[in-house]
Protein backbone atom coordinates (compact mmCIF):
# COMPACT_ATOMS: atom_id res chain seq x y z
CA UNK A 1 0.00 0.00 0.00
CA UNK A 2 1.58 3.32 -1.07
CA UNK A 3 0.90 6.09 1.43
CA UNK A 4 0.27 9.66 0.38
CA UNK A 5 1.88 11.67 3.17
CA UNK A 6 1.76 15.43 2.69
CA UNK A 7 2.97 16.43 6.15
CA UNK A 8 6.07 15.20 7.91
CA UNK A 9 5.44 12.51 10.50
CA UNK A 10 8.23 12.03 13.02
CA UNK A 11 8.90 10.82 16.53
CA UNK A 12 8.18 13.42 19.19
CA UNK A 13 10.92 15.64 20.58
CA UNK A 14 11.12 16.85 24.17
CA UNK A 15 10.18 20.40 23.17
CA UNK A 16 6.94 19.08 21.59
CA UNK A 17 5.64 18.23 25.06
CA UNK A 18 3.54 21.39 25.72
CA UNK A 19 1.53 20.76 22.53
CA UNK A 20 1.21 17.04 23.27
CA UNK A 21 0.18 17.69 26.86
CA UNK A 22 -2.52 20.15 25.78
CA UNK A 23 -3.88 17.67 23.25
CA UNK A 24 -3.84 14.73 25.64
CA UNK A 25 -5.55 16.67 28.42
CA UNK A 26 -8.19 18.19 26.14
CA UNK A 27 -9.13 14.91 24.45
CA UNK A 28 -9.19 13.05 27.76
CA UNK A 29 -11.54 15.61 29.34
CA UNK A 30 -13.82 15.79 26.30
CA UNK A 31 -14.14 11.99 26.25
CA UNK A 32 -15.42 11.80 29.82
CA UNK A 33 -19.23 11.46 29.84
CA UNK A 34 -21.10 14.32 31.51
CA UNK A 35 -22.50 12.08 34.27
CA UNK A 36 -18.89 11.25 35.23
CA UNK A 37 -17.50 14.77 34.75
CA UNK A 38 -19.79 16.18 37.42
CA UNK A 39 -18.21 13.78 39.93
CA UNK A 40 -14.55 14.66 39.28
CA UNK A 41 -12.31 17.71 39.11
CA UNK A 42 -10.62 18.60 35.82
CA UNK A 43 -7.29 19.08 37.61
CA UNK A 44 -7.44 15.55 39.06
CA UNK A 45 -8.22 14.09 35.63
CA UNK A 46 -5.33 16.04 34.11
CA UNK A 47 -2.91 14.71 36.74
CA UNK A 48 -4.14 11.15 36.19
CA UNK A 49 -3.76 11.52 32.41
CA UNK A 50 -0.17 12.74 32.72
CA UNK A 51 0.60 9.87 35.10
CA UNK A 52 -0.88 7.42 32.57
CA UNK A 53 1.27 8.97 29.84
CA UNK A 54 4.43 8.51 31.93
CA UNK A 55 3.42 4.95 32.75
CA UNK A 56 2.94 4.13 29.05
CA UNK A 57 6.19 5.86 28.09
CA UNK A 58 8.15 3.87 30.69
CA UNK A 59 6.50 0.50 29.96
CA UNK A 60 8.97 -1.44 27.79
CA UNK A 61 6.42 -4.21 27.13
CA UNK A 62 4.02 -1.66 25.57
CA UNK A 63 6.65 -0.48 23.03
CA UNK A 64 5.21 3.05 23.29
CA UNK A 65 5.86 5.60 20.55
CA UNK A 66 4.53 9.13 20.13
CA UNK A 67 4.43 10.38 16.54
CA UNK A 68 3.71 13.97 15.49
CA UNK A 69 2.57 15.51 12.22
CA UNK A 70 4.20 18.81 11.29
CA UNK A 71 4.07 21.27 8.44
CA UNK A 72 7.09 22.39 6.38
CA UNK A 73 8.08 24.83 9.16
CA UNK A 74 7.95 22.07 11.83
CA UNK A 75 4.74 23.52 13.30
CA UNK A 76 2.94 20.79 15.23
CA UNK A 77 -0.43 19.85 13.71
CA UNK A 78 -1.35 16.66 15.54
CA UNK A 79 -0.08 13.49 17.15
CA UNK A 80 -0.81 9.83 17.62
CA UNK A 81 0.61 7.54 20.28
CA UNK A 82 0.89 3.82 19.73
CA UNK A 83 1.94 0.65 21.46
CA UNK A 84 1.29 -3.06 21.42
CA UNK A 85 -1.25 -5.11 23.35
CA UNK A 86 -2.78 -8.59 23.19
CA UNK A 87 -6.30 -9.69 22.38
CA UNK A 88 -7.85 -11.28 25.47
CA UNK A 89 -8.04 -15.08 25.66
CA UNK A 90 -6.22 -15.72 22.35
CA UNK A 91 -3.15 -13.64 23.33
CA UNK A 92 -2.78 -12.39 19.76
CA UNK A 93 -0.54 -9.28 19.73
CA UNK A 94 -1.95 -6.23 17.96
CA UNK A 95 -1.00 -2.62 17.31
CA UNK A 96 -2.74 -0.32 19.78
CA UNK A 97 -3.59 3.33 19.17
CA UNK A 98 -3.47 4.99 22.57
CA UNK A 99 -4.10 8.68 21.93
CA UNK A 100 -4.90 10.66 18.81
CA UNK A 101 -5.22 14.42 18.43
CA UNK A 102 -5.27 17.03 15.68
CA UNK A 103 -5.13 20.71 16.62
CA UNK A 104 -8.59 22.25 16.35
CA UNK A 105 -7.63 24.79 13.67
CA UNK A 106 -5.99 22.02 11.60
CA UNK A 107 -8.94 19.63 11.55
CA UNK A 108 -10.71 18.53 8.36
CA UNK A 109 -7.50 18.92 6.35
CA UNK A 110 -6.61 15.21 6.14
CA UNK A 111 -3.98 15.29 8.91
CA UNK A 112 -5.78 12.74 11.05
CA UNK A 113 -6.12 10.43 8.05
CA UNK A 114 -2.39 10.77 7.33
CA UNK A 115 -1.49 9.90 10.93
CA UNK A 116 -3.84 6.94 10.93
CA UNK A 117 -2.56 5.67 7.56
CA UNK A 118 1.01 6.00 8.81
CA UNK A 119 0.48 3.96 11.98
CA UNK A 120 -1.60 1.30 10.23
CA UNK A 121 1.24 0.81 7.75
CA UNK A 122 3.72 0.79 10.66
CA UNK A 123 1.67 -1.91 12.44
CA UNK A 124 1.49 -3.95 9.24
CA UNK A 125 5.28 -3.74 8.77
CA UNK A 126 5.75 -4.84 12.40
CA UNK A 127 3.82 -8.01 11.55
CA UNK A 128 0.63 -7.34 13.51
CA UNK A 129 -2.54 -8.81 12.05
CA UNK A 130 -4.84 -6.30 13.77
CA UNK A 131 -4.95 -2.72 15.03
CA UNK A 132 -7.14 -1.62 17.91
CA UNK A 133 -8.09 1.41 19.95
CA UNK A 134 -10.49 2.71 22.56
CA UNK A 135 -12.78 5.59 21.65
CA UNK A 136 -15.52 7.46 23.46
CA UNK A 137 -19.01 6.90 22.05
CA UNK A 138 -19.41 10.71 22.20
CA UNK A 139 -16.48 11.35 19.83
CA UNK A 140 -18.45 11.25 16.60
CA UNK A 141 -15.65 12.62 14.40
CA UNK A 142 -13.25 9.91 15.59
CA UNK A 143 -15.89 7.20 15.23
CA UNK A 144 -16.51 8.32 11.65
CA UNK A 145 -12.79 8.24 10.82
CA UNK A 146 -12.30 4.80 12.35
CA UNK A 147 -15.37 3.28 10.69
CA UNK A 148 -14.36 4.80 7.35
CA UNK A 149 -11.02 3.02 7.76
CA UNK A 150 -12.49 -0.40 8.49
CA UNK A 151 -12.53 -0.47 12.30
CA UNK A 152 -15.40 -2.45 13.85
CA UNK A 153 -16.54 -2.86 17.44
CA UNK A 154 -14.85 -5.85 19.05
CA UNK A 155 -15.70 -5.46 22.75
CA UNK A 156 -17.85 -2.92 24.56
CA UNK A 157 -17.43 -1.49 28.05
CA UNK A 158 -20.90 -0.73 29.38
CA UNK A 159 -21.43 1.63 32.32
CA UNK A 160 -24.36 2.30 34.66
CA UNK A 161 -24.50 5.19 37.07
CA UNK A 162 -25.41 4.06 40.57
Quick overview:
The chain is α+β, with helices and mostly antiparallel strands and 162 residues long. Helices cover 36% and strands 21% of the residues. It is globular, with a radius of gyration of 16 Å.
Task: Give structural notes.
The model has no long low-confidence stretch (mean pLDDT 93). This protein has helices at residues 17-30, 34-37, 42-58, 111-125, 140-148; strands spanning 8-11, 65-70, 76-86, 93-102, 131-133. The chain has a 5-stranded mixed sheet. By secondary structure, it is of the alpha+beta class. It is built from 5 helices and 5 strands; from the N terminus they run βαααβββαβα. The longest helix is centred in the first third of the chain and has 17 residues, at 42-58. The termini are far apart. Helix 1 (17-30) packs across helix 3. Strand 3 and strand 4 (93-102) form a beta hairpin.
Amino acid sequence: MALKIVHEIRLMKDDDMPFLERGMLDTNWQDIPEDQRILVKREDCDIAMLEDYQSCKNNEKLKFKMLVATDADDKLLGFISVGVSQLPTVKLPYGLILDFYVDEIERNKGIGQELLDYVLEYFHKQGYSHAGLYVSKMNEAALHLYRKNGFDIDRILMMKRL
